[in-house]
Amino acid sequence: MSNIEILKRLYKDYTKKYINKILLSVFFTLVLAGSTSAVAYLLDPAIKQLFIEQNKTYVYLIPGLIILAFALKGASLYLAKVIMINVSEEVKKDVQTDMFASLIKADTELVDNKHSGKFIGNLTNDVNMITALVSTAILNLFKDSLTLIGLLGVMFYQNWKLSLIAIIMIPLASIVARSLGKRISKEAMKQMNFTGLLTSYLIEIFKNHKLIKIFQKEEYEKKRADNFIESLKETQRKMIIVGVRASPVMEFFTGIMIAFLIFISAKLIANNELEVSNFFSFLAAMMLAYQPVRSLATLNITIHQGLSGAKRVIPVIDDKQKIQDKENSKVLHVHNGQIIFENVDFNYKINEQQILNSVNLDIPGKKMTALVGHSGAGKSTILNLIPRFYDPHNGNIKIDGQSIYETKIDTLRKNISLVSQETTLFDDSIKNNIAYANLDASSDEIEEAAKFSFADEFISKLPQKYDTLIGENGIRLSGGEKQRISIARAILKKSPIILLDEATSSLDAETENKIQTAISFLTKGRTTIVIAHRLSTILNSDKIYVIDKGKVIGEGKHDDLLRTSNIYKNFYEKQIKKT
Questions:
Q1: Are residues 149 and 228 in the same domain?
Q2: Least confident of 236-245, 326-335, 498-507
């Protein structure tokens, strides 16, 4: 997209709705430009009436008008900034909300192939650049341009020749002009803390992307994000406004100081102690013009940064899901739970290597089927294709004769539970982690699921029991405890299809026995596909498929495969020797 197209897009989608507020801010910049120009202009009658003609009638009037002009200048600047701060924070919230809505529904492939830190950078740093483009750039463009035009008018009114010289000199002088103030470091630190809070939440979301999909909580997380972003917006808005309150105060006291100096100077002139030059008014206008010239000179940086941020954010917002419902897709009805793979081919885009090659599987309903093979053989990929985390390049997958690509995705995932080696938990209470499968579940239902998964054994010993906070991804729990919570969650969902990916790996014998018992309850009467390196856990499976280099090279029960599959036999013999 060109810069013009990006600006049009930002206006159409994010700033057009706030155009009335922006125009109101522009009005206050007009007041600001007029009051700033008035300050410079008032020096002319002040010098003529007070210093030269020594007209005592104006001794109080002109200083009073100057104070008023500075008060208007400070107030209009404050109001213009506050309005644009509010607009920019609203725009920021809108952009972040749209981006989050796109990411939470994005294909798993997109999330897996891009580091989560990049998404976080898009949502924080890049969006902040866009916000600066909307607020700082727009405000400064009008404020400084109008102020400069007004001051140039005063300068030409006083002396056009000097004005022509000043037009050349002002940009040169602005290069070395001192800054009008320092940034408020305290407020900057607070903004960094706000960004850190948002980042922490986003990391949780990206870590649990598959879990959100399998339990169909995209809308639930979107509402959580809306509330979080709304609170963050309000906090930042208040803190930023506090940061700009110094501006009108300083402008007001500057006006009083200058008025006082003029008042004293008038007395000195009356006593013939000070000479006055006719170009004071021009000089004041020229000095006041330094700030808008300096600001306009650096405005280009803010604009380019904002456009760069938009170029990174807009494609994420516009990303179209490849995995989505087709037109006229139907509700998936699971009766027996038979799953059939028909000539399925698949490869990940990241390396273009063929992972699955013409895979055919017939997984019986309401029974347990195991997948066995070396790491990288394609077992986990097979599991990922069933809930459509990914779609194959060729072939078809059917559940009870219904193609999963012709059914609604939400009804497909509603019928599937996933328990994997990498247990996925939120930094929340045990109760809420289990209830993620069913937000309407009662406390009795949650505790019942925990009892069947043997999680209640350790939960009941905790001081806060089910209200215990478990830390990021359950950091405060052992591997076996986390796995039992994951199984309890799957039990609570009560789905007819269960996917188990190394669910008992890296556990001690006692814990594994408990989890095996819990899995037996979870999978009873349900279609179950299990991946396990420990063949002892799948010996009683109704069917075992041997997968090697993306192909099915053997199938049958344990005893059959010992006779017909050398790979399976080698697996078994090696594990027997280890034990």
A1: yes
A2: 236-245
What confidence score (pLDDT) does residue 195 get?
Answer: 57
Domain final residue, candidates 318, 338, 365 = 318
Smallest Cα–Cα separation from 63: which of 249, 266, 247? 266
pLDDT at 415 over 60: yes
Nearest to 417 by CA among 495, 486, 339: 495
Query: What sections of 319-354 are H helices per DSSP?
Result: none
Do 39 and 69 belong to one domain?
yes
Please state, in angstroms and rounded to a whole number, the distance separating the CA atoms of residues 461 and 458: 5
Task: Read off φ and ψ for residue 302, nearest 5 degrees.
Answer: -60, -40
Residue at token pair 């809306």:
226
Q: For every residue of 296-326, which 3-state class applies, written as one string?
A: HHHHHHHHHHHHHHHHHHHHHHHCCCCCCCC
Task: Give the contacts of 106 (CB within 8 A, at least 6 positions apart).
Answer: 319, 321
Of residues 366 and 303, the one with the higher pLDDT is 366
When pLDDT is averaged across residues 265-270 and rounded to a whole number, the result is: 56
267, 300, 318 — which closes off a domain?
A: 318
Record the pTM: 0.72
- The domain containing residue 343 runs over which residues? 323-415+499-579
| Burial classification of residue 314, based on how many CB atoms lie within 10 Å of its CB (0-12 exposed, 13-18 middle, 19 or more buried) | buried
pLDDT in tens, 42-58: 887 877 777 777 777 77
Torsion angle defined by CA atoms of residues 297, 298, 301 and 306, in that order, rounded to the nearest 10 degrees: -110
DSSP symbol at 469: B
Q: What angle do CA 442, 366, 338 make, to 5 degrees?
A: 115
Instruction: Please tell me whether residues 398 and 282 are part of one structural domain.
Output: no
List the beta bridge partners of residue 363: 339
CA angle 278, 262, 160 (to 5 degrees): 25
Amino acid 514: pLDDT:
79
Residue 402 or 567, more confident:
402
Q: CA–CA separation, 42 vs 69, rounded Å?
A: 9
The number of beta carbons lying within 10 Å of the beta carbon of residue 272 is 7
What is the model's pLDDT at position 369? 92
Coil, strand, or helix at residue 565? coil
The H or E element spanning position 129 is helix 127-132
State the pLDDT at residue 267.
64
Sheet of 394-399, strand order: 354-363, 339-347, 394-399, 402-403
Pair of tokens at residue 84: 């644009």
